[in-house]
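Title: Prediction job returns without error message
Component: structure pipeline
Severity: low
Priority: P3
Assignee: unassigned

Description:
Job completed but the reporter wants confirmation the result is attached to the right record. Sequence as submitted:
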Amino acid sequence: MGVMTVTELDSSALRSTVAFTGRLACMTRAAAFEVVRSHGGTPSQTVTRQTNVLVVGELGWPLLDDGRPSNKLSRAGTYGVPVVSERRFLEWIGKAVPDSWHRTYSADQIAALSKLSSDTIDELVRFGLLDPRGGLFGFRDLARWRHYLANDAQSEWAARARRSLKFCEMQVHISNS
């Protein structure tokens, strides 16, 4: 998989080709496509070289059962397409409170509080599963991961998250070798 860069995009990204992966918490996929169209952009069912941004839905999990990235997430990495969270998408359309209004944490603080390695945090950012702003994370990021990994310990969702984290940690180990 190619290297995905975390890019500080703004709402002008909605005037380009936008794809979605995972299940959106805030609206249906059809409604999200309509929002993109209303901002002058082109919604896409697939990720291609012409895709300008991939939005990851908060309810869907863009990683496969074995922890590998989904096809859309893999293609985004291969083509260098920026990946943003559903929360960022909502901010762009004026439907979410910006993180600047909330307390933020460094990657090291998030790693310590979540008991995940810093390298795993970096991988989660690369996959668009954590969404830093200026290198800082909101409490919501931490709370979401703690919920997935602790409270739903017996759920398939948590099992998939753990497999995905293990895959991320393997990728980090391989790339550092």
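Comment from assignee: result matches the submitted record. Residues 47 and 72 are 6 Å apart (CA to CA).
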